[in-house]
Amino acid sequence: MKIGILPLFNKGFIDNGAWCKAFLRKIDTIGVESVWTVEHPIVAEDYEHLYSYSEDGRAPFTPDTVMPDPLEWLGMAAGCTENVKLGTGVLLMPLHTPIILAKRVATLDAVSGGRVLLGVGIGWQKEEFAAADVPYNERGRRFDEGIDACRALWRDSPATYNGKYYQFNRVHSDPKPANPNLVPLIIGGSTEVAARRAGRTGDGFFPHAISPDDFAKLIEVMKTSAKEHGRDPSKIELSVSPTAWKFGASLDLGIVRAYADLGVSRILVGAFEAGGTEPADIERFVKRVQDEVVARL
To answer: Whole-prediction pTM value?
Structure first.
């Protein structure tokens, strides 16, 4: 079981270069596999309550929540580390033009030595899509085309893609990713649509705020979709954040074991679970996860 970690998405921490560097240098040396960012370019003051992971449709934003650009932040992380992989959990694919996104991601992968894990999601905030001038009801189709277009640009030179929303003909996009298998695309989302997309095209599947029982149902959907498209479902890596479903679950052996029994190979923990903000606090927390949970699976 690999351990990924989310930094503190609070003012004075995630936007504080000194804290970020100390945090990153620490996790790079204590057996953490990956560090993960999230994305919301904007948050509307009066957004429609469509967040599907809470009963009232409200997202868990607080006045001091800060979400830096995920790729810019990971670029800084790449320069501070040698070992940890660099994940987005998740980047909102339909908000990005593929030729720009492919270039940014490939550059990060190239300079980091192939460490990028690109988690991508469909998004839920209507106001965000309106501000970006992207039709909300087209985001699923743009999502699928964006995946295919990025892979074409990473793989081919010259590259050609002809979709409904994105087109280019015999173009070159360099640098290419350092990863010889291209950048892994991890599909986010806790719906059957997301599970089918993961089976059809994902290198990984990462539902959010999901119980082991509900994850088990989506895994079956994902496996069926993979087989329908001639893919081996065992090659699709499963990730989950236990604490996103139940706060403190990162240290609950029974819950983590239930995920592991489903085939999950990566858990994401949060620095906010450490009970303190200093690198030493986070190191102690990670060691507890390693010793009290992962070592006993």
So the answer is: 0.97
